[in-house]
Specification:
The structure holds 2 protein chains of 2 kinds. Chain A is α+β, with helices and mostly antiparallel strands. Chain A has 16 helices and 28 strands. A 5-stranded mixed sheet of chain B has the order 2-1-5-3-4, with helices on both faces. In chain B, β3 and β4 (about 55-60) form a beta hairpin. The chains are: A alpha+beta, B alpha+beta. Chains A and B meet through α4, α6 and α15 of A and α1, α2, α3, α4 and α5 of B.
């Protein structure tokens, strides 16, 4: 590991004048992972642009994929800058080392940028106050900022930021500035509507798919029909007879058809005569599932946690619970099918489109096309969902290769079928959980899991609360690409673990809420081994959701509740699903969610993320799966890849945040992992039947 | 290739295309009305919903040759100032997350309220069959009830 000079860990702030009068304030977090960045140390980074006419533009540094950061990140700057939210403009930043880590993933945007962006805003405000004090020839202490102006209280004089911008830009960057006391927040913690709301409701061009450029061709690509096959040959005679076809190009293992419209390109693609040959194993879901069960029956080579002696405790007990859960492969299926615009000519690449990782897109394009990274520009539109699919930049790389070969600007559009058949899927998994009991107590807990590609584990509770706890996991090698899907690992671990916990409670005849609180108390008072969670924060959400849902009280006839709780991305969530059986079929009426995620930045956006994660989790638990037959994807569109619709959605989702002044933790993902178990546990309460295999609808 | 004359958002427009071209791609690629979205191409998700003579239609499977004299309204033409009661309610409830499906959802909701000004939850369940991958269903339902309260019909 290389030594990082201490200077590179510091934050640099720099201000510069902009043409026409005004100021730019930048903030750079030098990332030790990117040593090249140290060359930019003193380059100003534009988060704030204030022009002399008073226009204030704030930059949203991370990709907007529906998680709301185009709104919440600028809110943080605006709070400390003391501007009127209604009067600012927001832009999504292009890829630039000045903005640090421009990734949308790991529920990390707000938690990573909360303090840094507060400082960006506070620094600029301090300079504007100084500029005003100098202009009025009064002490800075007599001035304060409010709503985009600096006010000199004793005289009542007021100077707008626009009028101060040029002067502020000439001032030295202060090292001494104050952040607001959170009790004085006027924007952070309020309900703010999505910054693009008016554009969304009127259908303005916001997305990558809406890109239209001079001379641009539309491309649709023929890709392998199955994993394990490669292109042998193709014949484009029929394609070239069609109207609007401009070029047909082989790009690696694919064939791109470029035409004057999307439809013409698609028709051309569909008219290709393609021959594919086997180039690897042709895998099927049935084989994966059989291998999983075989592997689960044996002791796994890897043990990520082993407290006490689980086997001795199992052997000693008369009462052992031994249960298997399974979860299928699923696709990301973000609503906007993949696409990307690329214009690669004369050693330069201009890229525009949906990605969660513009930085790695640039690296890969640079490598593939041998273009210097500084000659590759990447700008980002608003994106029609992410869910982890675009943590892989293959769509952008492919567009760049096609444009380079075609020597013209091109918009590559994936059909839904292309998208579903060329994903980096959520891996399927199988879980075996065992527990042993003695005198009405839980004595030992053993969790073992098998996943496509690689193992995945968690040492959240009940680890730390039990004398005997073992967790192990293993992977099954596959040539089908697996990737990151909203709350990776947690998304199905939460289901298996919290379903099993409900079974344990049932076995012990203990109330599911009371028993979890009991475990938290044990983890707090007599912790066993390392504790990766805060038992008090866990209790805060468990107790809150119990109160919200009238847990333990008499429910209306025909109403059944299920409880679950999970900790991920540093956030604690507890959920109760309330359902009714209507004509023998369950309908979720309400879901109650209690969340401890530190300080909430945008109450409306945060609540929307929680509600969305709950719907996402319920839909995928009930309905959704991808299966493979000899390498081919069987569910290629929404006809048999079933998504939850309004008639299956909860009628209401009630969200409460535990009041907190702690820094923000993750929000886009943590509400998903617990909900499938809460649903399964409610279904058990209603039907007496355990739902251990997703999708539940097939049980 | 044939030239098709179309009435879109109360304007006469024309497009030269193959007769089998879905209305969706005529709108997006020929007429540059990109608010109508492509989601599945098989009339399952409803991202491409437009109004044809006031009724919600999934334009991705609707060939341009079938349009004839029918009047098409897209999200861009639902209201002059973006203030149709459904659009207002969508803004008030801050419905969208990614926003991609919402043009289609708004068009579906506006068509519902036109034929059923006071829909029940059951009516909403039956009529709102579009997919929202982000899971904004609870807010959409509330927004539809709110728009109905304001008289949610096309002006």
């Amino acid at each position: 590991m290389s030594t990082i000079p201490s200077i590179s860990r510091r934050n640099f702030l720099k201000v510069s004048a902009i043409a026409g009068g005004g100021m730019l304030v930048g903030f750079s977090m030098i990332d030790k992972a990117d040593p090249a960045r140290t060359t930019d140390e003193f380059t100003p980074n534009a988060y704030i642009k204030i022009t002399a006419d008073g226009t204030i533009t704030l930059m949203a540094p991370n990709p907007e994929i529906g998680q709301g950061v185009k709104t919440s990140l600028p809110m943080i700057i605006a709070e400390e800058l003391c501007v009127d939210w209604q009067k600012i403009n927001v832009e999504i930043a292009a890829l630039d080392a000045k903005y640090g880590n421009q990734v949308a993933g790991g529920s990390g945007s707000v938690r990573g940028r909360f303090e840094p962006l507060r400082k960006v805003g506070a620094t600029a405000k301090t300079m504007l106050v100084t500029a005003a004090a100098q202009t009025l020839n009064v002490p800075a202490e007599e001035c304060h900022a409010e709503n985009g102006s600096v006010v000199h209280k004793p005289s009542g004089r007021k100077l707008s930021y626009g009028s101060l911008a040029s002067k502020a830009a000439t001032l030295p960057v202060p090292s001494d500035f104050k952040l607001k006391d959170p009790k004085d927040f006027k924007i952070i913690g309020t309900r703010v509507k999505d910054i693009d709301v008016k554009k969304i409701i009127t259908g303005k061009p916001l997305f990558g798919i809406d890109t239209r450029r001079e001379g641009m061709l539309f491309a649709v690509v023929a890709r392998s029909p199955a994993y394990g096959k490669k292109l042998k040959s193709f014949d484009d005679t029929e394609t070239r007879k069609l109207t609007g076809i401009k070029q047909v190009l082989q790009i690696k293992n694919s064939v791109a058809v470029l035409a004057t419209s999307t439809w013409a390109a698609k028709k051309g693609r569909d008219a290709l005569s393609l021959e594919w040959e086997d180039a690897g194993k042709l895998e099927s879901t049935a084989d994966h599932d059989a291998a999983f069960l075989e592997m689960l029956s044996k002791k796994a080579p890897d043990t990520s946690r082993n407290d006490g002696d689980v086997e001795a405790a199992m052997t000693a007990s008369h009462q052992v619970l031994d249960v298997t859960y399974t979860t299928p492969v699923v696709s990301h299926a973000q609503m906007e099918p993949l696409n990307f615009f690329a214009d690669v000519r004369d050693g330069k690449a201009e890229l525009f489109g949906p990605t969660q990782v513009p930085g790695s897109l640039r690296s890969q394009v640079a490598k593939e096309l041998n273009i210097a990274p500084e000659n590759i520009s990447i700008e980002l539109p608003r994106q029609g969902g992410g869910f982890g699919r675009k943590l892989m930049p293959d769509n952008g790389v492919e567009a760049a290769l096609i444009s380079a070969a075609a020597k013209c600007p091109v918009q590559v559009q994936w059909t839904r079928e292309d998208d579903m058949q060329n994903d980096f899927y959520r891996p399927s998994a199988a879980f075996r959980y065992r527990a042993s009991f003695e005198n009405g107590n839980l004595l030992a807990w053993h969790q073992s899991s098998v996943w496509l590609n690689r193992g995945n584990n968690s040492d959240t509770y009940p680890a730390g609360a039990l004398q005997n706890f073992r967790a192990e996991s293993q992977g099954l090698t596959t040539n089908i690409p697996m990737g990151y899907w909203r709350a990776p690992g947690h998304n199905v671990l939460g289901f298996a673990a919290e379903s099993f916990m409900d079974e344990v409670c049932h076995e012990l005849k203990k109330d599911p809420v009371a028993f979890r609180l009991e475990l938290m108390e044990k983890a707090k008072q007599q912790p066993v081994g390392k504790i990766s969670y805060d038992p008090d924060k866990f209790k805060s959400v468990i107790e809150l959701v119990a109160a919200m849902s009238n847990w333990g009280k008499k429910q209306a006839p025909g109403t059944f509740l299920g409880f679950s709780t999970w900790f991920s991305f540093n956030t604690y969530v507890a959920e109760v699903v309330e359902l009714k059986m209507i004509n023998g079929k369950p309908r979720v009426q309400k879901v109650y969610c209690a969340v401890n995620c530190g300080k909430v930045v945008n109450l409306s956006g945060a609540e929307n993320q929680i509600q969305g994660a709950v719907v996402d989790g319920i839909g995928h638990a009930m309905l959704t799966k991808v299966t493979f037959d000899k390498g081919a994807v069987m569910e290629t569109n929404f006809g048999n890849y079933r998504f939850l619709r309004m008639k299956e959605a909860p009628l209401d989702i009630i969200v409460k945040f535990v009041p907190s002044e702690d820094p923000p933790t993750g929000l886009g993902e943590p509400a998903l992992p617990p909900v499938a178990a809460a649903l399964a546990n409610a279904l058990f309460a209603a039907t007496g039947k355990r739902f251990r295999k997703m999708p539940f609808d097939e049980a | 290739m044939t030239t098709f004359k179309l009435s879109v958002n109360n304007k006469e427009m024309s497009a030269e295309a193959d007769a089998d071209t879905p209305l969706l791609w005529i709108l997006r690629d020929h007429l540059n009305l990109v608010g109508t979205k492509y989601g599945c191409g098989v009339a399952q998700c409803g991202a491409c919903t437009v109004h044809i003579n006031g009724k919600a239609v999934r334009s991705c499977l609707y060939p341009v040759s079938a349009v004839g004299n029918n009047k098409i309204v897209t999200i861009e033409g639902l209201s002059v100032n973006g203030d149709h009661p459904v659009q207002q309610a969508w803004e008030e409830f801050d419905v969208a997350q990614c926003g991609y499906c919402q043009s289609g959802q708004i068009m579906a909701a506006a068509a519902l309220l036109k034929r059923n000004p006071k829909p029940t939850d059951t009516d909403i369940d039956a009529a709102m069959t579009n997919i929202c991958r982000c899971g904004t269903h609870v807010r959409m339902r509330k927004a539809i009830h709110a728009a109905a309260g304001k008289g949610g019909t096309t002006k």
